[in-house]
């Protein structure tokens, strides 16, 4: 059979096995037909879901034991970050230094978020300080390019609680020659969660880039949403011992959505494709869930990537891990329990060296989620066991010690970095395969 007689399905099967996006671009450059197969949006989504494209991770270690679960932590200062290349990545950590971004005046850059190949930097004084006329930076470590922009804020008496980059579909991304959305340092969308001093109002603001009359890149406010009733529904009394500005906590990004949990038992999500915010209906943690479940980052996280569906994991009964998925395949607000992992059983079965601690493990309490890395959840060990933190793979149920975490049970912030995606494919190939 000649090469040009291979059906598209077989070509796709071959291309899906190409480990590097560079090889994918070379294949697309071979001929018009191969370019068409590779450029198909469905194929690109499938390729990304099956191939680990992460170059590496920026990692910051919190400075206190369970002292700061809100992001961004002061530990996320750019000056204290470590870049750890992925095992399969052929690259140097020095290449991904952020030293090409000029220092802000009288403050430090904090790594607020990463998405795809982009990194969002925000001045540290932006958090819990006057946020008016403060510049933020979006940079691309892969190409060492950056752009500085100032979010236009009508209210000058606000502070930033959270900052995120949003993916395709929210209005800013241009399209490449294959009609795919492409974000870059000149076209991106930023979400800021702002806190208003005095009134205590919390607002989600979405800003998109545009080019002004002076040819300068600027941000415009495209959407503003009050978060008051989402964080604390009407009729729910305020928790008196808590600062209300710290009532919501970022749970992560998965499946094209960003997730937050609140101290009032609410979980809500922002759909990156529409910019819509909506509360989620999760099953009760137990039959007598009184008072409302208290969500923090140590007991609720999102798991997944942009290509696949998102899931939530939460710690219940102090020692069990619930994996939650949308009730309907297409997503939606109603969620259900996919499976419950009894950590004492998993630990004694998956880590045989803990047989001497079997009684201690059976009384396992106070488990906390330290971080989500890929499809694995990093958890604190049984108190008093002398164990290192361990990870649970949610697909295989395999357990592993996480020795490079260190013996201190501290929060780590992991910011993955990927190469630009989709790859820059040729507009058309000049030859056909015969």
UniProtKB/TrEMBL annotation:
Checking CDD domains in the record gives: F-box_SF
Q: Which domain of life is it from?
A: Eukaryota
Signal peptide limits: none
Q: Do you know which PROSITE patterns this protein is assigned to?
A: FBOX
- For the F-box domain, which residue ranges apply? 1-50
In terms of InterPro entries, this protein maps to: F-box-like_dom_sf (IPR036047), F-box_dom (IPR001810)
Name of this chain's protein:
F-box domain-containing protein
Q: Which organism is it from?
A: Oryza sativa subsp. japonica (Rice)
